[in-house]
């Protein structure tokens, strides 16, 4: 690797490599040697920019969580359009077909990584907690527009939707669930809370 490459470029290169490994081979295949080999750089590059491998993984997870912001904004902007079931089916499918499911498995399998993430994210399961916040913000906007019952508990509905969706997508070895299965789950969780037009 040439010297003088900007840190951000190296980080992106290494994070991209980590994501590809997690998606294709699962979290157990993620090692510093695998990441640098996939990124096409010397092993020392990773350790030059991060204190240790768990520090690298923590930054990788935080970077991927930050990438949820545009999806969260798009979902909030969808409030008042289409149907709640369609909007949520699309958002949950997009979220769980991404690297999110693999990252959750990575977090739960590495004590050192969880400890590092607790320094920044003291509660919940990273990625899932932020995803629940994204869904809660959307449901709040829909409630404010009158499309969700005024008494609907969005702080209970959002994690219920995230948990149920995670179970649908959790088996990385099987084909992802059909959109209709995701939609059926969404309509079941929201049953009684959606106001008919």
Automatic annotation (TrEMBL):
Transmembrane segments: none
DNA-binding keyword on record: yes
SUPFAM superfamilies: Homeodomain-like
Keywords: DNA-binding
Domain HTH tetR-type: 8-68
Keyword DNA-binding: yes
DNA-binding region: 31-50
Name this protein carries in UniProt: TetR/AcrR family transcriptional regulator
Species name: Saccharopolyspora taberi
